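Run Ribonuclease P protein component through structure prediction, thanks.
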Amino acid sequence: MDQTFGKHEKLKSKILLDKLFTEGKSVKSFPLKLVYVPIEDSETPHLKTGVSVPKKLVRTAVRRNRIKRLMREVYRKNKYLVTKDLSSSFAFMFIYISRENMDYSGLEKCMIKTLKKFHENHA
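Sure, done. The structure for Ribonuclease P protein component is below.
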């Protein structure tokens, strides 16, 4: 079980980000929203993942960065839920949609629920 979140797994492509937000589908589990889109032209199935915390909801940079750091860690620990039976490649964007702070365990429960919803739709 691979528990890394390396450079090749991070969502950085401007083209892919634009496609994600124009054509992407979403799955919600408060306070997380997962927007995803399939990626073509790849021979091995993999995920490109990004996290986002809107400035409009979380005003201070310190809180935004902490939430993003927690989201990346929770994803890194639980990505096996979707990668074990992955048949094609996807681009993921996790968006935090709450004004309140959330601790690691609460965020982990929401992330697991979100990943399971995605896996049910694409298994």
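The chain has a mean pLDDT of 91.
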